[in-house]
Amino acid sequence: MLSTIATGLAIDAYGPISDNAGGIAEMAGMSHHIRERTDALDAAGNTTAAIGKGFAIGSAALVSLALFGAFVSRAAISTVDVLTPKVFIGLIVGAMLPYWFSAMTMKSVGSAALKMVEEVRRQFNTIPGLMEGRAKPDYATCVKISTDASIKEMIPPGALVMLTPLIVGTFFGVETLAGVLAGALVSGVQIAISASNTGGAWDNAKKYIEAGASEHARTLGPKGSDPHKAAVIGDTVGDPLKDTSGPSLNILIKLMAVESLGMGGNSSREGDLLVTGPMLISMITEIWVRLITENDHCYRGRV
To answer: CB 3.0-4.6 Å disulfide test: which of 1, 38, 253, 256 passes with 22?
Structure first.
């Protein structure tokens, strides 16, 4: 498996490089035929990126499976019986977590994008000469919005991943936690693959129409037509799917298994899996409250 690392990294890196080349060509005001070539490279990059993400997802699945086996061994669980009510409930909860996590990340992307749009509108309305190109926009504020959102908006999904093994292991025991890990692994891998492939397909659908890559694409109309508007909407959903939700699910399935193994391997008695669970829950809750309070003070200060 290690022999394919170089190929996988090259395939995965090709997509962002070609995408950035297109963005640089557009910002530099280069000719239209250069932009057409970079669009073709970007479309191919989306396909290769989906392949590279497939390698990453497969790697995360194997790592999580190995960690699950180590957790079962350290917790002295002889069998994980699906017919056991605790395990069955854990499977249902674990299978639900990737959907919940994906919904939270998608919502975070939408919230950050809305803040960025509002800031851009504010600058166009308040900075004289910006529409005519006689003034420079405030780039630092836009960068600050995206940076703050990338950190603060990930607190709820991160808390979901960190707190779930603690709460389940502390109050429901090792068998339920084993079911949660198994359910999250099976469900998370499927959603990650689907999100990566679907997002890349929707992104390429928009480029397919804009480039007029075939006779059928040319019949759909130019930019601004109804099919193109529908493709833009699909691309708006597809970008966070393939760039945010899909790759982040790898972290979910691995981090939950690592945390369960690291914190729960010392005890296998029901309700006593995570001896330090209540203390960690209190610490994380205190950090959460402090972050929310600080964010609220900053917001009031801006208002």
So the answer is: 38
Closest by CA to 67, choosing from 273, 256, 257, is 257
Sole residue written with tokens 């080349």: 21
The answer to whether the beta carbons of residues 170 and 276 sit under 8 Å apart is: no
pLDDT of residue 226: 81
- Count the domains in the chain: 1
What letter does residue 138 receive in the DSSP assignment?
-
List all residues 6 or more positions away from 254 whose beta carbon is below 8 Å from its beta carbon. 60, 63, 64, 67
pLDDT for 216-237, tens place per residue?
667 776 777 787 788 888 888 8
Confirm if 142 and 96 have CB atoms less than 8 A apart.
no
Range of the domain at 200: 2-302
For the question of whether the overall pTM of this predicted structure is more than 0.85, the answer is no
User: Which two three-digit tokens encode residue 176?
Assistant: 């339920």
Q: Using one digit for the tens of pLDDT, what is the confidence trace for 94-151? A: 999 999 999 988 888 888 888 888 988 998 888 888 787 788 888 888 888 888 888 8
CA–CA separation, 197 vs 203, rounded Å? 10
Contacts of 149 (CB under 8 A, 6+ apart): 108, 111, 112, 115
Length of the chain: 303
Rounded distance, CA 266 to CA 261, Å?
Answer: 9
Using CA atoms of 68, 188, 91, 94 in order, give the dihedral in degrees to the nearest 10.
90
pLDDT at position 32 is 77
Distance (Å, rounded) from C-alpha 188 to C-alpha 55?
Answer: 15
